[in-house]
């Protein structure tokens, strides 16, 4: 994989159309999908089912707050339902899932929320009060879709409080991604036996494939009717190896990151892209920390006894003295370099379905500070 990426980057740099040079501080992003596929990091649904049976006790079980997604959770749900030795009580959050996929139309929800008695309600009440709300992009009715994964074993409920799961079972599988640690702690303090998605498929099978020690099933994606692709393993090790080879070939210090979903929100539907546990599961050390940045508009509007131009130049120069990880931005938007660069890469490739598994970025770190 390291050799192939380097070969293609060199070929691209010498292409008749838009040739380019490599520079110190360039960044190469490699999508997590191509790395995981190179590793053969797939797991069969039967293996997920076996892991559920191995790890969880017999009896009914609750599974809370999954994403509304055919690719991210649909096939996985069928494996969980098969593995549970009892009923599987599926609790869906409302009016949206964790990343903003709608379960209830917002206007309908606010107009009718008062008709619901308490936080927890049934599928029958959902139909009576809110009615079905197909996904605005896919047209999928996820309540029906998830129920059909195993109608004999799956019962669907609606709740936003993780403690509602204890109404049905003291054993709970937390399927949330970014809130999983909070939900686990809340449930364990209440005495529940709790599992999170990163605990399943976290150890190698006999053939050594199909596992992720850190993320388990988190970051997995639809691969076929009978399997899912997992997040790649040893992403940081791959990033360092690629950076070393690029330096050998180009003589330049080039940073590398492996990226998945970008951390951005669709302004029309209100859906967050970030269905992976992190934007970048592995990267080189030069991408640690926060970028050097400053609110030009704030400094220009408050120049003191200087001209706006003088104030901005002075602020930029003084900012250059600060370490990336120690800086404090005036704004409230997250500013980790890996989140910014990974999101940039994802916009260029995956989210635009451009068929571009490798992205070369030049000039991202260029700054007035360096002149």
Provide a descriptive summary of the structure in words:
The protein is of the alpha/beta class. It has two domains: 2-39 and 232-289 and 336-370, 60s Ribosomal Protein L30, Chain: A (2-Layer Sandwich), CATH 3.30.1330; 42-229, Rossmann fold (3-Layer(aba) Sandwich), CATH 3.40.50. The chain is built from twelve helices and 13 strands. The strands form three sheets. The protein has a six-stranded mixed sheet. It has a four-stranded mixed sheet with strand order 12-11-1-13, sandwiched between helices. Strand 9 and strand 10 form a beta hairpin. Helix 1 (2-13) crosses helix 9 and helix 3 packs across helix 4. The longest helix is centred in the middle third of the chain and has 16 residues, at 235-250. It is globular. The relative contact order is 0.16.
Number of strands: 13
The outline comes out as globular
H-E string: HEHEHEHEHEHHEEHEEEHEEHHHE
Q: Multimeric state of these chains? A: single chain
> Which class best fits the helix and strand makeup?
alpha/beta
Just name the CATH architecture of the largest domain.
3-Layer(aba) Sandwich
Domain module tally: 2
Question: What is the count of helical runs?
Answer: 12
Q: How far is the N terminus from the C terminus?
A: 36 Å
Q: How would you write the strand order of the largest sheet?
A: 5-6-4-3-7-8
Strand content: 5-15%
